[in-house]
């Protein structure tokens, strides 16, 4: 009797609560209908720790690939790479260079306006180059991302013609300068003293295909609306949203996002019913073994490094760590999918005997009771291996340890977070380290930084590096770059263990036409977010945001109802026990 | 007695002030002894997408810009003076004043921690009292097993399971963030519902982590109280269970309040994991990202903010206890 009375009161209170909650969500589903026609595309940068890439303006974005891409939606460069890596004109319609490669003339597109309606002219180009050059010391982006150092002067011949004169012939000018520097409106920036702190709404006004509507650093989200007057044509979507997700695969499956970059493991977690289009591309992302050259006297010996190379089975490491989501390293460092790849370099096929032989010959034939080789002073060959404690690096480090044990070299694993590793390596406080990073696509950036990124100084290599940069003839340049790769393979300043591929999955009901640009965008960022996708791609009907919104609302209401019910039950249980 | 109490409150206040200063100092020195400076994150590092080449002159200018050139003690004095003005400098990563970021993030953490605290406290007390009342019985035994179990599951693991079950499999709750980005809200109730549905999972996760502590304490204190003569007396007088429980609870409340205040510190640590798992845009996630980027100003600002909150709550608990229990101030 008593109990049934309670049940009735529970029933009534649940009913009351659910009515209140139902009342809460009814207007929500009704309001969703306004947006039926809107083509909204939600993307995510995948599993990085942050989705905040800074304010998307030329001198305030966070200076890494994604930051530049977020900016490129609002701002156009003079030219832009297509899927093949060939350049198409954005703000420039055509261009030519003088024979010595010192003078580049750009004929600008007519009738282009900024997002605020002001006309775009040659003066804006002149202004931008001078401005970025002048402000380079204030903004780290200015000096590191835009190579204005090669520019001597910029001059407007008339309203639609600009001549850029270089200090010296610079082979990667188009890829590294013309296709990278975002042209900024003079009328907005002329009085801005400190561009690194200028984040007003106007700071995102460009000529690009998208107009920034919101940048939310707390929620780590971006919202862009289409620039209907874009000179290459109207974008295929109305709204572009970038969000942060806690689990990309789940967010793709639930439709919280329409597209995201993934790892191969994550791609494999998708199945056919998910209706996803998966594309993959060259990642230009290398995992390499770094040596402390020249400080470590043993590792400074080229033959020792060669022996280590022979002892590592790179294809095995790749399959155990990336499970086929990459390719094994190339001794010449340039990955095989690059147009600059030279296959004719010294190869280090996995060969333990050879490795042992080299070490014996180098004077490390004595071993201690553990089978570890001894140096001339009787100390065991024992090195610390530094690595950042992410899953891949951890696995690689363990494999390297196992392989080196085989040839009598003992390895102590020393994990740390990325910054700790960077810091220790920077201070020269290490023996060996596992590094993983993007490598760029142009040899000027990929290879010329070798002395700084490996500690290996070779005058012949440096001379070649200088020369290839100013060699305008493509074939001649290729020859020089080939020679550089031969030198790298012979001297083993670092061991490229493997290159990781990049993957992206897109819901087939939204946009198709994503691709990985040959040579990357923005000077070499390997990404599927080439903004041309949103012009030349296809919108596949609607992904019915209305329905999605309603389901989501209903779903969350059910969830809340459910939890209220659970709470109520717990409560009742306790109350029952009470009496 | 009142005088004694206010004396107690003042002396505790002084202790908290000293604690706060020590926290400020630790805050300053700790990130600086870690390897890997903040410049690495802007000038490129192994994790950057492109190798960024930076020359010495540029580096010097940047160092100067961020005042990294001054001797440590000068930096420290500047830091204390600025902190007193609530000026925590400019974030190296986010490129905006630290206070702006903190003010954007703090409400979310307070919402998350606050609701989790209320939730775990209410249920911890109810269940704890019930468990003590039924000590030795089946329910009590079951609870004594179940509760510590929740505590022993790592928060991020519990979070991942929750995301999978309640976010993906059933689709009841969104799996990340604090709001649905750029949703068109029809009104405030719609907005509130969106926030609540995003809050539910991380809140439950945090509460599940905190509740066992409260539960165990309440149970143990109440079990002690239940053996006392006044309870026997009350039972003998035939008072209702409910009335007896109320008295037991009031007599046990001081250690519970203290425990909750002390727990706040752990809760702050818990939010770092939970916010990271759920991508909840509060201080925890901010601290995590700033640590990865070695963003000193943000880290320091966040720690100071969080310390202030924890200290203030502890102080409030102290004062509350001195009012509830006259003996507190007399020691």
Automatic annotation (TrEMBL), chain A:
It comes from the Archaea. One of its GO terms (molecular function) is peptide transmembrane transporter activity. The keyword Repeat does not apply. Pfam families: SBP_bac_5 (PF00496). One of its GO terms (biological process) is peptide transport. Keywords: Signal. The keyword Protein transport does not apply. Residues 88-458 form the Solute-binding protein family domain. CDD domains: PBP2_NikA_DppA_OppA_like_21. InterPro entries: SBP_5 (IPR039424), SBP_5_dom (IPR000914). PANTHER family: ABC TRANSPORTER PERIPLASMIC BINDING PROTEIN, PERIPLASMIC BINDING COMPONENT OF ABC TRANSPORTER. This is ABC-type dipeptide transport system, periplasmic component.
From TrEMBL, chain B:
One of its GO terms (cellular component) is plasma membrane. Keywords: Membrane, Transmembrane, Transmembrane helix, Transport. InterPro entries: MetI-like, MetI-like_sf. It comes from the Archaea. Residues 106-317 form the ABC transmembrane type-1 domain. The keyword Aminoacyl-tRNA synthetase does not apply. It is a multi-pass membrane protein. It is found in: Cell membrane; Membrane. SUPFAM superfamilies: MetI-like. It holds the Pfam family BPD_transp_1. The chain crosses the membrane at residues 12-30, 106-129, 141-168, 188-209, 248-278, 298-317. Coiled coil: none annotated. The keyword Membrane applies. PROSITE patterns: ABC_TM1. GO terms for biological process: transmembrane transport. Belongs to the binding-protein-dependent transport system permease family. This is ABC-type dipeptide/oligopeptide/nickel transport system, permease component. It comes from Methanolobus tindarius DSM 2278. The lineage of its organism: Archaea, Methanobacteriati, Methanobacteriota, Stenosarchaea group, Methanomicrobia.
């Amino acid at each position: 009797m008593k109990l049934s009375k309670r049940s009735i009161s529970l029933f009534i209170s649940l009913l009351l609560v659910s009515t209140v909650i139902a009342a809460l969500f009814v207007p929500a589903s009704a309001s969703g209908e306004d947006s039926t026609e809107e083509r909204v595309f939600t993307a995510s940068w995948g599993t990085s720790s942050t989705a905040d890439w800074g304010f998307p303006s030329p001198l305030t974005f966070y200076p890494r690939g994604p930051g530049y891409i977020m900016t490129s939606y609002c701002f156009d460069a003079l030219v832009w790479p297509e899927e093949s890596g060939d350049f198409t004109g954005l703000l420039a319609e055509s261009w030519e260079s003088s024979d010595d490669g010192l003078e580049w003339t750009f004929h600008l597109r007519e009738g282009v306006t900024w997002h605020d309606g002001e006309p775009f002219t040659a003066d804006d180009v002149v202004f931008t180059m001078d401005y970025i050059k002048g402000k380079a010391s204030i903004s780290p982006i200015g000096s590191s991302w835009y190579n204005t150092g090669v520019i001597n002067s910029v001059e407007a011949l008339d309203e639609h013609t600009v001549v850029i004169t270089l200090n010296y012939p610079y082979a990667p000018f188009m890829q590294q300068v013309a296709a990278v520097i975002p042209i900024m409106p003079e009328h907005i920036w002329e009085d801005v003293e400190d561009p690194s702190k200028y984040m007003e709404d106007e700071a995102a006004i460009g000529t690009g295909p998208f107009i920034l509507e919101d940048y939310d650093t707390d929620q780590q989200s971006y919202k862009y609306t289409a620039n209907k007057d874009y000179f290459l044509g109207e974008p295929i979507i109305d709204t572009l949203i970038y969000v942060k997700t806690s689990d990309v695969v789940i967010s793709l499956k639930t439709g919280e996002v329409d597209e995201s970059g993934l790892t191969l493991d994550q791609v494999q977690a998708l199945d056919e019913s998910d209706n996803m289009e998966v594309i993959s591309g060259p990642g230009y992302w290398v995992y390499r073994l770094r040596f402390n050259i020249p400080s470590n006297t043993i590792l400074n010996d080229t033959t020792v490094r060669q022996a280590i190379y022979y002892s590592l089975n790179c294809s095995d490491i790749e399959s155990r760590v990336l499970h086929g989501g990459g390719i094994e390293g190339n001794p010449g460092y340039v990955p095989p999918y690059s147009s600059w790849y030279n296959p004719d370099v010294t190869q280090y096929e996995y060969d333990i005997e050879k490795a042992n032989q080299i070490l014996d010959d180098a004077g490390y034939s004595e071993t201690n009771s553990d089978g570890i080789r001894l140096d001339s002073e009787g100390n065991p060959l024992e090195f610390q291996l530094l690595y950042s404690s992410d899953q891949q690096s951890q696995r690689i480090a363990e494999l390297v340890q196992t392989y080196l044990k085989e040839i009598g070299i003992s390895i102590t694993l020393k994990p740390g977070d990325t910054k700790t590793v960077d810091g220790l390596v920077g201070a020269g406080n290490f023996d060996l380290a596992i590094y993983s990073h993007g490598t760029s696509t142009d040899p000027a950036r990929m290879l010329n930084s070798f002395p700084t990124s490996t500690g290996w100084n070779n005058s012949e290599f440096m001379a070649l590096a200088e020369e290839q940069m100013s060699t305008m003839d493509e074939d001649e340049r290729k020859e020089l770059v080939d020679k550089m790769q031969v030198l790298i393979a012979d001297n083993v300043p670092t061991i490229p263990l493997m290159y990781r591929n990049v993957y992206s999955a897109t819901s087939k009901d939204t946009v198709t036409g994503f691709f990985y640009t040959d040579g990357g965008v923005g000077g070499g960022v390997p990404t599927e977010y080439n903004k041309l996708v949103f012009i030349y791609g296809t919108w596949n009907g609607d992904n019915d945001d209305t329905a999605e919104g309603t389901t989501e609302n209903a779903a969350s209401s059910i969830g809340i109802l459910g939890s209220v019910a659970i709470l109520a039950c717990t409560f009742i249980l306790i109350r029952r026990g009470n009496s | 007695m009142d005088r004694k109490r206010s004396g107690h409150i003042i002396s505790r206040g002084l202790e908290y002030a000293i604690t706060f200063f020590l926290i400020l100092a630790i805050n300053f020195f700790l990130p600086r002894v870690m390897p890997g400076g903040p410049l690495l994150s802007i000038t490129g590092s192994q994790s950057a997408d492109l190798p960024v080449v930076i020359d010495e002159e540029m580096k010097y200018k940047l160092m100067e810009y961020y005042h990294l050139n001054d001797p440590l003690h000068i930096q420290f004095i500047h830091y204390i003076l600025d902190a007193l003005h609530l000026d925590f400098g400019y974030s190296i990563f986010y490129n905006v004043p630290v206070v702006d970021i903190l003010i954007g993030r703090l409400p979310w953490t307070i919402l998350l921690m606050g609701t989790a605290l209320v939730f775990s406290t209410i249920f911890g007390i109810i269940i704890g009292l019930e468990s003590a009342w039924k000590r030795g019985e089946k329910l009590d035994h079951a609870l004594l097993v179940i509760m510590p179990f929740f505590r022993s599951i790592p928060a991020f693991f519990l979070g991942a399971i929750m995301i999978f079950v309640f976010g993906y499999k059933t689709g009841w709750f969104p799996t990340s963030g604090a709001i649905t980005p750029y949703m068109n809200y029809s009104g405030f109730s719609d907005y509130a519902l969106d926030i609540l549905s995003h809050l539910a999972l991380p809140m439950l996760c945090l509460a599940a982590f905190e509740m066992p502590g409260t539960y165990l304490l309440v149970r143990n204190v109440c079990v002690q109280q239940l053996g006392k003569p006044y309870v026997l007396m009350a039972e003998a007088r035939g008072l209702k269970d409910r009335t007896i429980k109320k008295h037991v609870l009031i007599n046990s409340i001081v250690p519970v309040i203290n425990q909750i205040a002390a727990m706040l510190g752990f809760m702050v640590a818990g939010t770092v994991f939970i916010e990271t798992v759920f991508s909840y845009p509060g201080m925890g996630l901010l601290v995590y990202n700033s640590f990865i980027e070695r963003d000193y100003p943000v880290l320091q600002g966040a720690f100071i903010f969080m310390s202030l909150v924890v200290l203030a709550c502890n102080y409030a608990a102290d004062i509350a206890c001195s009012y509830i229990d006259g003996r507190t101030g007399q020691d």
